[in-house]
Amino acid sequence: MTRPVCPRCQFLVKQCLCDHLSIVHSDIELVVMQHPSEVEHAKNSVRLLPNLLDNVRIVVGETENDFADLKAQLAAKHHPVYLLYPSEQSIEAPQVEHSQQGTLVVLDGTWRKALKMLKLNPWLLSFKSLHFSPQAPSRYRIRKAHRADSLSSLEAAALGLKALQPNMDITPILSAFDAMIEQQLAHMPKHVQARY
């Protein structure tokens, strides 16, 4: 039996987050390249972003063919395009010269899947790569991570946007994320909650 889903927030009606959603303005366009395995994942944080940001696009795929249109669109941009991905060539996001316009690309998937997406889409390496050092551990208590600096895609996107736009208030984004986590925990059986 299909469980009812809220038409606005796209979460189960019993886990509706609409009371926690408010749109945040961003001068920087956010593009999330989402691995297909994340789309239906119950703990997917990215699905919150269209309800929280006025300048966001989610493109699902894995291979270069999947992202052919996006590749062409990004190549045609007349403003800076940044890839948020830590590498030997990446620079600390706060060190980037701030721009009135720009595009931030985030890969949504596990570390392994994100790396695979990057290898399948080497054209992404033509953009300046950014990273940042989280000042606090991830709030993502309901998903296990093998790296101490791991963040959810939503957290990484919010902090990346903040680094490029220091005056941007990302509090509503992180508050909605916290509410999502609390809702998920509240509906888990006690023995499952104990793992987190």
TrEMBL record:
GO biological process: tRNA processing
This enzyme's EC code(s): 2.5.1.25
Highest rank taxon of the organism: Bacteria
All copies of domain DTW, residue ranges: 2-189
Enzyme class (EC, first level): transferase
Pfam families tied to this protein: DTW
Keywords per UniProt: S-adenosyl-L-methionine, Transferase, tRNA processing
InterPro entries in alphabetical order: DTW, DTWD2/TAPT
GO MF term set: tRNA-uridine aminocarboxypropyltransferase activity
Segments traversing the membrane: none
Record keyword Transferase present: yes
Membership in a protein family: Belongs to the TDD superfamily. DTWD2 family.
Protein name: tRNA-uridine aminocarboxypropyltransferase
Organism, scientific name: Parashewanella curva
